[in-house]
Design brief:
5% strand, elongated
Length: 79
């Protein structure tokens, strides 16, 4: 599984949040992060740690699975 940066970008855009507000809110939830880290998550330059992912999930009230891309290879059919 891989982090879905497009989903995070969409959730942030849909809520109308700015980076500073999300950083402040995450800090209030007990996780220190930066505007640059959130920008990197949105652009796919980096992926959040598991704790950050759990906090994002709770913050947006979404299952953690929504923040992940399941790139499971298709099985080859036997001939």
């Amino acid at each position: 599984m891989k982090f879905n940066s497009k989903y995070v970008k969409k959730k942030i855009k849909d809520t109308g949040l700015k980076g500073e507000a999300l950083v402040r809110d995450m800090e209030q939830m007990g996780y220190k992060t930066s505007r640059q880290a959130i920008h990197n998550w949105k652009t796919g330059r980096s992926e959040p740690e598991l704790k950050s992912l759990a906090i994002l999930s709770g913050y947006f009230n979404e299952p953690m699975d929504n923040f992940l891309v399941k790139n499971i290879p298709k099985r080859k059919e036997r001939q």
